[in-house]
Every structure is written in C-alpha cells, then in structure tokens.
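Lecture 7, part 2: worked example. A protein chain together with adenosine monophosphate.
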Amino acid sequence: MLKETIFSKIIKHEISSDILYQDELVTAFRDVSPKAPTHVLIVPNILIPSINEVKNEHEKTLGRMFLVAAKIARAEKINESGYRLIINCNKHAGQEIYHVHMHLLGGKALGPMI
Ligand code: AMP
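Predicted complex, written out as structure tokens:
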C-alpha cells in the first residue's frame, strides 16, 4: 500500500487548495508557490509515485491530464501566447512530491527550457 501524499489529501478535499478542475480521473489546482502567473498542477486521482511507475492501465488517466492541461490553458487565456508542461521524475529532475503531477506554466515568456 502506497503512502498517501499531500496531493491525495487535496484530491479528497481534506486540505484546502485552489482546485480549478476535478473529474473521475484527474484533479487540477494552483501551485502553492507559483513560478509563473499561471502555475497549475494536474494530478491523477490515483497515486502513481513517479513516471517510472506508469503502467498500461494508466494510459487513459495520462491522456486526460493533457486534455485538462489544454482546457485550463484556454480558461487562463494562455493558449495563444503559449505555455510549458513539465513532469519531473526523481532526484535529478528535482521531484519533490512523489505523486505524478504535470506543471502547467504560462502567462509570461518562460525563457530557455533549462
Ligand atoms: P515537483 O518538484 O515537480 O515535485 O513539484 C512539486 C510542486 O508542488 C511544487 O511546485 C510545490 O510548490 C507544489 N506544492 C507543494 N505543496 C503544495 C500544496 N499543498 N498545494 C499546491 N502545490 C503544492
């Protein structure tokens, strides 16, 4: 049994967060420490610790994350100007929360990728 993360608690509304979207597969909420005018995290409702643990059965959920990213980008009016999607995996990428999440960043020129 995997240990629940802070994101599990947000998904279950056990701790407060600025949730923008939720359905049966994913939840999206604003990052508590935004790195850009729009900084949203899109998270599977089920706990997958990192991309290393992704399995075939997660395909629909992972696809939904992209659909929700595009939907939120439109809602935030950054779809035309552009945005960046980031998923960190493990130490070298600086992953802090071991619950897969996609960062949606935009609202200003983001500069070089790294
Ligand atoms: P990562 O480094 O990819 O694991 O990113 C983790 C992200 O989670 C960071 O950008 C944090 O600011 C964000 N974060 C941590 N705790 C919370 C929280 N309670 N609500 C929203 N975002 C959070």
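Helices lie at 6-11, 59-75, 90-93. DSSP finds three helices and five strands in the chain. Keep this in mind for problem set question 3.
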